[in-house]
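Hey L., structure's done. Input below.
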Amino acid sequence: MFRIQGYKELPMFLDQIEVIQNGSGNGNNTIARLNLPSGRTITALATENNYGGEWDLGPTWNYIVGPDNPFLVDTGKSGMGYRLMEMMGQIKINTPDLDFVLISHGHEDHDGGLTELVAASGIKVKAHPIYEKLIRNYPDLAPCASKENFSASCWPCFMPESFTQSHCRAYHQERHHLNVEGLGPFPFRLSEDLVVHHLPGHTPDSLAVQIGDEALLVGDILLPEITPHPSQEKFFQLTKSLLPSSYGEGVLIYGLRAYLDSLNRLGELAEAFPRLIVLPGHRLYNNHHWNVVDLKTRVEEIKVHHLQRCRAILTILKNGPKTAEEVAREHFDPKRLKGFGLQMAVNEILSHAEFLQFAGDIRFDDGHKLEASGTSRFESLMDDLSSATN
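Output:
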């Protein structure tokens, strides 16, 4: 069964996809291949991505773009590198057969298996130049002692220290030594029909790979069923001294404003290439069905989601100032706040609070509580961002 999010006249996904190996009901261990009219192939390999607790993104979908000069996009979470190589072996592809691996963004569920692949094959790594900077350790610049042995990408992490110490230490130490080729300027052409777009906001280094007018590998920039969380603009203050000089303002790469701008640029791609097949980093297959995404419609759905989130925050604050955690507890279903869900929810609220503060609709009081100003300018600000992009 195929669940379609958006307009019905979509590419003939059913005719183009070949399931090589069936996985679980949420897609784990699935191997499938898209055969595009141009002769290009995209092989999708779903590696397990289970962290426990009540929240589940589903497996990470890693993609091999071929058949000529094949390359891999993403490597799954830590410990999945060898499993990914096993899955490639099942379809007669060995890591040395690949030209390079491109990392869509520097989150552990997308590049956690990278060091295993590099150690096993010496495969070349390509990513955004910001990624190359943030995977390094800078003990003298770390914001606190507990972060001294973690790469800079970990510094803004909202997960509790108990989680990062037990799950992430080896991951950060291993990435620190990687050789990475930074791509750019963007849009960057890998070849005549392969274009890499920089679309930050979820992370500062988020990339999408466009394959002609046929397909778009979007990583976590846009997902079916769930909405990617934006980063926070304040994270820029932690990392700005490390980043390329061309990124001199945090709003260019961090926060909800950067993310909305990236959504608007995805909307432009949807207008220019209306039959793009969207291949996300999660939920391509979930709950026993494939998610076929219409890019234009899904962009608008996510923008409306953020508009409604801002409205909800202002409604909650009408009753008086509240902390971000208090707003999160009032706004989200309690089931979503179990385990690490609360930290994720607070991050969501703070990213929207930054946007509302920029619009002049809220302020932070002396006790770091959010306080409504009585205005509602954010809607026109969102319209202005869309107009500026278009």
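Residues 2-294 form a domain with the Metallo-beta-lactamase; Chain A fold (CATH 3.60.15.10). The first strand starts at residue 2 and ends at 5.

-- N.
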